[in-house]
Design brief:
With 597 residues, the chain is mostly helical. The chain has three domains: 129 residues, no CATH class; 387 residues, Hydantoin permease (Orthogonal Bundle); 42 residues, no CATH class. The protein is 58% helix and 5% strand. It comes from Rotaria sordida. One of its GO terms (molecular function) is metal ion binding.
Length: 597
């Protein structure tokens, strides 16, 4: 800490950048091993442990022999600050000493017990210079990257259902409270942590090595999050391709399904009176006559058991796309269609990431903005449909009594962690590519507020279509509301089949889901890749190869989700990736920064 105080005149001087490149002066070692630190007229000193460095005269000799290693005409204030931040936190050689003579920074490598030669030291310095960390090439790259990372599928699919389930508009009270007192502070903390250290989610914790496990936990969470999240994108890719038809397959029970009866002929609430719930809470059955075409008390016999009529899109997703087995441990087949869609998703991801942040930082301009355009178009169309007002009413209908329930507050806090993507390591990774002195407060507030507005707006759009679906089927809104994948692949797809030019609305919707999913996946994969390249810095020159290996491994593990039991595994990963682990990481993160460091 005192080293930075000693260097304060250097950091604050207006003429520092002009004095950084200068001739080295002779350095001799005195009895106390004093390293002189000077800039202009300001001079300070600090004592160095003589066990960790060679004779300073030898260091001066190496400087004279290899001046190009220690003098860089492009060295500026930002490089100096970055070096100081590395000094503060330490790098791979924890005992590195930095000598500053006449404003010029040089690095004395730690001489380990295995007697590393001076030539090896010079080679290491060459490697460090050749594998400098990338930086964003554009002014708004970081903003759009964090916006796309935070505003994902959870904002469009998960938040509207949670709001409906937890008291409608009342849910916004705990949500806003946790946003300002939990979400935004943690978001701001992680962004500044990554920017100050210029390290990924794992190596930034060198300021308190005992907490390095936090970074490892973040990387693990991002790893498993990416595996199941890309499968959701794969589902969207498959539906997107299938939407290029004159008639959508899930509009009616066609040759692809073994439907007992068409839902469109059973649209009144009375059709559901004589039913009972099956023990697994997934299917409803009704007793119908062998040749019955309608559900009524006159034709209920002790004949064949039939499944309660459901939306054709429900049958299509669960029985045709997923071919769901009886349970998570019943794995018998793998669906080649899902494998190809998952493979295509990973190929697209690799193409976007293989060029580093200078390329992906430009791609996110499109992937983070265009979903808003599609969402607005879908919203305008949905608000013109009959029954939409009932859907919006159920979405925002306030129930103040729900505030007494613990689950409401737990869901609000959990959604804040998930929707802002804090404690997953992605924010630290993305901000590590910032310039050292870049302002982050504005980006933090803009991304956080935009996330909330997007979530609320998406709720109005989704529930407009749910109200319309309830209207055309004669059901209550509570009977058609579904969460997460059910909303994306069952309810909404069927609603658009009743609209004119149905394939167009289906294409727009699933294209929006693909873009939202890719944005979130980009940062998560980058988190894993940076964890590896920060640990083995020479791999930074092979960033494309490391990215390819990471994508290949994740694709291989994702094949499990392409089996007939894959959706059970996806649900398992979704439920246990994050949640309480995110709370614990966030708490320890605050303790580390506030009380340990």
């Amino acid at each position: 800490m005192f080293v930075l105080d000693l260097l304060k005149p250097i950091l604050t001087s207006e003429t520092t950048s002009n004095n950084l490149i200068s001739n080295h002066t002779d350095v001799s070692q005195d009895s106390q091993n004093i390293v002189e630190l000077s800039s202009g007229d300001e001079t300070s000193s600090t004592k160095v442990n003589s066990d960790n460095v060679r004779n300073v005269n030898n260091q001066q000799t190496r400087i004279n022999e290899n001046p190009q290693l220690y003098q860089n005409s492009s060295y500026d204030d930002n490089d100096l600050r970055r070096d100081l931040s590395q000094y503060r936190f330490g790098d791979d050689n924890n005992n590195d000493q930095r000598n500053i003579t006449n404003g010029t920074v040089s690095i004395q490598e730690e001489i380990r017990s295995n007697n590393i030669s001076e030539n090896e030291i010079v080679d290491n310095n060459n490697n460090n210079n050749n594998h400098k960390r990338d930086e964003w090439s554009g002014r708004f790259d970081f903003f759009f990257s964090t916006l796309g990372y935070a505003v994902g599928l959870g904002a469009v699919l998960r938040f509207p259902y949670l709001c409906y389930r937890n008291g409608g508009g009342v849910f916004l009270i705990p949500y806003i409270i946790f946003l300002f007192f939990l979400g935004i502070p943690l978001f701001y903390l992680e962004v500044n942590l990554g920017q100050f250290t210029s390290q990924g989610a794992t190596h930034c914790w060198k300021m308190a090595p005992i907490f390095k496990g936090l970074g490892i936990s973040m990387s693990i969470m991002s790893f498993f999050f990416t595996i199941y999240y890309t499968m959701l994108v794969g589902y969207s890719v498959l539906y997107f391709i299938l939407s290029f038809r004159k008639e959508l397959q899930w509009a009616t029970c066609g040759s692809w399904a073994n439907c007992v009866s068409n839902f469109s002929s059973l649209t009144t609430q009375s059709n559901y009176e004589n039913t009972y719930k099956y023990p697994n809470d997934r299917f409803l059955y009704t007793f119908l006559g062998q040749n019955a075409t309608e559900t009524s008390s006159s034709n209920i016999t002790n004949g064949t058991q039939y499944r309660k009529p459901v939306l054709p899109s429900d049958d299509y997703f669960n029985n045709y796309i997923l071919n769901k087995s009886e349970g998570i441990d019943f794995i018998s087949t793998i669906d080649w269609r899902l494998v190809l869609c998952l493979l295509g998703t990973w190929i697209l991801i690799y193409i976007c990431l293989c060029g580093g942040v200078k390329i992906s930082g430009k791609i996110v301009y499109f992937t983070s903005v265009f979903p808003y355009v599609i969402l607005l178009i879908l919203g305008i169309r949905g608000w013109m449909l009959p029954g939409m007002s009932n859907g919006i009413y159920f979405y925002m209908k306030p129930d103040v009594s729900r505030l007494r329930e613990t689950r409401v507050w737990n869901d609000a806090a959990n959604q804040i962690f998930f929707i802002l993507s804090v404690t997953y390591g992605g924010l630290i990774t993305l901000s590590s590519y910032n310039k050292f002195n870049q302002s982050t407060l504005g980006n933090t507030l803009l991304v956080s507020v935009a996330n909330v507005i997007t979530s609320i707006f998406a709720g109005f759009v989704m529930f407009a279509y749910l109200g319309y679906l309830a209207h055309i089927t004669g059901q209550n809104i509570t009977d058609v509301v579904s969460e997460g994948p059910g909303l994306a692949f069952i309810v909404y797809p069927y609603a658009v089949t009743t609209l004119p030019v149905a394939p167009l609305w289906s294409i727009l919707f699933f294209f929006m889901l693909i873009l939202l999913g890719l944005d979130s996946v980009f940062a998560s994969i980058e988190t894993v890749v940076v964890t590896i390249t920060d640990q083995i810095q020479i791999l930074r020159r092979y960033n494309a190869l490391v990215t390819f290996i990471v994508c290949t491994v994740m694709f291989g593990l994702g094949l499990l989700l392409c089996t007939n039991a894959g959706f059970y595994w996806l649900t398992l990963l979704d439920n246990f990736t994050g949640s309480y682990a995110a709370f614990i990481i966030g708490l320890l993160e605050c303790i580390c920064i506030a009380y340990v460091y």
